[in-house]
């Protein structure tokens, strides 16, 4: 299958946005980047707002703050737990080297990429029900840090670091054709997730009759 053919398939495979939004029961919004400075480092956190009607959540709305490393942790947990699923990618930690990582332009681009990452997980029929994703969206800072430390020994931390370095290298050096095909697979997966949500909604409505 050629890249142009893949693009054509994506263009032809569309769903009504309004109808699709009615099937969603989990909405996540990334915004409000904020700089934090301590004696050891300076870093940025993003506000994560969540609205849901799912029964496994204690309330319908949550608001937490997470930094980039927290997103990396979440993606690693999903990759470890679901090796047969395509986990959405994250932007490289320093992909925009020409920009100051605290500049408004850098933060705008990063916020958009993190939003896309969480939206794809929230729309996924399997990944969105993962316990680590649930904690990521709902836990207070101290609870989240305690959860992350569970099972994170030295070997695990070294493995994660090597994985992140390798992933960053591959993202920078892969041919354009592979990048286009990767985007196609991601988009096609999003559409399949939408179809699954619609199917589940129809089944629920039929079972309620």
Automatic annotation (TrEMBL):
GO molecular function, one term: phosphatidylinositol binding
GO cellular component labels: early endosome; membrane; phagophore assembly site
Domain PX: residue ranges: 24-144
Key words, A-Z: Cytoplasm, Lipid-binding, Membrane, Transport
GO BP annotation list: autophagy of mitochondrion; endocytic recycling; piecemeal microautophagy of the nucleus; protein transport; reticulophagy
UniProt topology in membrane: Peripheral membrane protein
InterPro entries: PX_dom, PX_dom_sf
Subcellular location per the Swiss-Prot or TrEMBL entry: Cytoplasm; Membrane
Top-rank lineage group of the source organism: Eukaryota
The UniProt record lists the keyword Membrane: yes
Pfam families named in the record: PX (PF00787)
Chief location category: cytoplasm
Cytoplasm recorded as keyword: yes
Coiled coil location: none
Family: Belongs to the sorting nexin family.
Protein name as catalogued: PX domain-containing protein
Species of provenance: Octopus bimaculoides
